[in-house]
Amino acid sequence: MEKSQFFATAMNVSTFKANTGFIDRWKRRHSIGMKQISGEEKSVSEESIRPWLDITLPELLLKYTPENIYNVDETALFYKLRPEKTLTFKGEKCSGSKKQKDRLTVLVEAIMASEKLPLLVIGKSKSPRCFAGIRSLPLDYISNAKAWMTGNFFQQ
Fold first, then answer.
1. 3-state SS record for 49-112
2. Contact 144, 126 (CB under 8 A)
3. Residue 78 and residue 102 in contact, taking contact as beta carbons nearer than 8 Å
4. pLDDT at residue number 1
5. pTM for the predicted model, two decimal places
6. Quick check: 72 and 107 in contact, CB under 8 A?
7. Distances (CA, A) of 147 to 5, 19, 93, 99, 125
8. Average pLDDT for consecutive 10-residue bins of the chain (156 residues)?
9. What sign does the CA torsion over 47, 74, 101, 85 have?
10. How far is CA 67 from CA 43, 54, 56, 106, 111, in A?
11. What per-residue confidence (pLDDT) applies to 38?
């Protein structure tokens, strides 16, 4: 808008008023909208990892049986965190609030021989109220002050 106003002034066009109308209509016509960028998809080139996939990994896998190959990953579950974006009516005020940082850490683990192990959930409370009266869970639960994975938990 600033640049178009500059050119209109330079060309002595006094009736021109810059606005977002053109770009808004163009975005609508071509189905372009605002999205939040997330992740790091395709940040490593295929060529750079090809030797490792073709040579190094097969040699490593020969040293172990499928029962001794594990895949483990942890993720944080912010169970009180509200979404960063929402739908609302035009003209309606939409404001956020302080981000809730209450979390659980969830460890997901599987063995190559297709056996899934129970989830390990790490919370802050040693004995959460929501578990009162429950005799067994389909997961393992442990706790520490920050609900984080530690080296000791991982070894256990």
1. HHHHHHHHHHHHHHCCCHHHCEEEEEEEECCCCCCCCCCCCCCCCCCCCCCCCCCEEEEEEEEC
2. no
3. yes
4. 82
5. 0.59
6. yes
7. 55, 50, 35, 17, 9
8. 87 86 81 68 80 93 90 91 75 76 92 87 91 88 92 86
9. positive
10. 31, 22, 20, 22, 6
11. 61
**Token pair for residue 72?**
């483990």
Query: Which tokens sit at 145?
Result: 């002050």
How far the first Cα of the chain sits from its last, in Å, is 61
Helix (H) or strand (E) holding 140: strand 139-143
Tokens of 71: 């895949």
Q: Which two tokens stand for residue 75?
A: 């993720």
* Residue 144: both structure tokens together: 């520490």
Q: Which residues, 6+ apart, have CB-to-CB distance to 96 below 8 Å?
A: 82, 84
- Residue 80: what residue type? K
116: enclosing H helix or E strand: strand 115-116
Residue whose token pair is 């009266």: 133
